[in-house]
TrEMBL record, chain B:
<feature type="transmembrane region" description="Helical">
    <location>
        <begin position="179"/>
        <end position="202"/>
    </location>
</feature>
<feature type="transmembrane region" description="Helical">
    <location>
        <begin position="121"/>
        <end position="141"/>
    </location>
</feature>
<dbReference type="Pfam" id="PF00810">
    <property type="entry name" value="ER_lumen_recept"/>
</dbReference>
<keyword id="KW-0812">Transmembrane</keyword>
<dbReference type="GO" id="GO:0005789">
    <property type="term" value="C:endoplasmic reticulum membrane"/>
</dbReference>
<comment type="similarity">
    <text>Belongs to the ERD2 family.</text>
</comment>
<keyword id="KW-0931">ER-Golgi transport</keyword>
<keyword id="KW-0653">Protein transport</keyword>
<dbReference type="GO" id="GO:0005801">
    <property type="term" value="C:cis-Golgi network"/>
</dbReference>
<feature type="transmembrane region" description="Helical">
    <location>
        <begin position="56"/>
        <end position="77"/>
    </location>
</feature>
<dbReference type="InterPro" id="IPR000133">
    <property type="entry name" value="ER_ret_rcpt"/>
</dbReference>
<dbReference type="GO" id="GO:0015031">
    <property type="term" value="P:protein transport"/>
</dbReference>
<feature type="transmembrane region" description="Helical">
    <location>
        <begin position="98"/>
        <end position="115"/>
    </location>
</feature>
<keyword id="KW-0472">Membrane</keyword>
<keyword id="KW-0675">Receptor</keyword>
<dbReference type="GO" id="GO:0016192">
    <property type="term" value="P:vesicle-mediated transport"/>
</dbReference>
<keyword id="KW-1133">Transmembrane helix</keyword>
Amino acid sequence: SSVVTKHDEL
Amino acid sequence: MNIFRFAGDMFHLISILVLLLKIYATKSCSGISLKTQELYALVFVTRYLDLFTDFISVYNTVMKLVFIGSTAAIVWCMQWHPVVKRSYDRELDTFRHYFLVGACFVLALFLHENFTFQEIFWAFSIYLEAVAILPQLVLLQRSGNVDNLTGQYVFFLGAYRAFYILNWIYRYFMEQRFSRWISCISGLVQTALYADFFYYYFLSWKNNAKLHLPA
């Protein structure tokens, strides 16, 4: 599955 | 989380606190572009759609709430506060920022990481943030002299994204998977827009003169 890029930056 | 990113977030927080201080202490918002503040409110609302769905950390959630809350408070103050709104330079703050919103949204429809509702709005917010300072820079050039707090506001805002670029460089070398091209390129454009402001800010600091932007 395409790793959903978690936006951990603000 | 690395030191560059943390420093960037702190500069961003300081820039907003400086702006709130200026408005609260002087009860005036002269020299501040309401359009830039509206664009920033839109940036935060469209970027933090995952505020209630994805929990990253307490720091992350608290900072998102602070950014949304403080920017909303500034927009409210500049439009509705009986004393502050009178000092708004309505006739100088005439940048047609709706074009920026439209252009960034169209760009986000073509350039995004995943074609999902949340990702398109996230990419939109990244592009919009890069150009959100334009109405403010145009207003500063039109109003000529820049008062200290407003100058510091723009300076810290530029420093925040410049430190984020250091953060992306750091992550590029430290993490095997680097997929932040949208943020990185947009962040470079954003910081480049501050370049001329930084130049004149540095000159005014060196000559200990009032910051004066050439019209």
